[in-house]
Write a structure and sequence with these properties.
Helices cover about 50% and strands about 10% of the residues. The protein is mostly helical and about 140 residues long. It has one domain. The chain has a three-stranded antiparallel sheet with strand order 2-1-3. The protein is globular and about 45 Å long. It comes from candidate division MSBL1 archaeon SCGC-AAA259A05. This is Helicase.
Length: about 140
């Protein structure tokens, strides 16, 4: 399927929230079913959005005990939410969040469902992408 191929070819950046010394930029298809940090073997890996690389700076600030502004707090919280999903669901969580407009909350709803087969899983991702495409233009107005 086209959707499956697109999601598996998407480039993602994972960052270890345990040791905070390891990250990887890779395609979803190259990930193991249960991704781990190559440095400390932890499974607490956060998905860093491509356009928000400043998340890494915010995580560093948090680790150093510095005060974060609201945007940084939100970025750190979302990254930790993605890490919890990856910890629980593994590669399936990364696949779900690789969908357009699918963040941790939507991915949680998709992953929590009992899918009879792979097609049902991808169908739910496609539905979420369609909702995003239909509604995202109204979000900031």
């Amino acid at each position: 399927r086209v959707l499956e191929r697109r999601l598996h070819n998407k480039q993602v950046k994972l960052f270890c929230l345990n040791c905070r010394n390891w990250s990887i930029l890779t395609r979803v298809r190259r990930l193991s079913s249960d991704p781990t940090c190559n440095n400390c073997e932890a499974k607490f890996l956060g998905l860093v959005p491509r356009k928000k690389r400043d998340v890494l700076k915010a995580l560093k600030k948090e680790e150093e005990g510095k005060n974060l502004d609201e945007d940084e707090k939100t970025s750190v919280r979302r990254t930790k939410e993605t890490a919890n999903l990856i910890l629980t669901y593994g590669k399936q969580a990364v696949i779900a969040m690789a969908g357009r407009g699918i963040g941790p909350q939507t991915a949680t709803r998709i992953l929590a469902k009992q899918h009879k087969n792979k097609e049902d899983f991808y169908r739910d991702i496609l539905r979420a992408e369609r909702i995003y495409a239909r509604t995202h233009k109204f979000w900031n107005s």
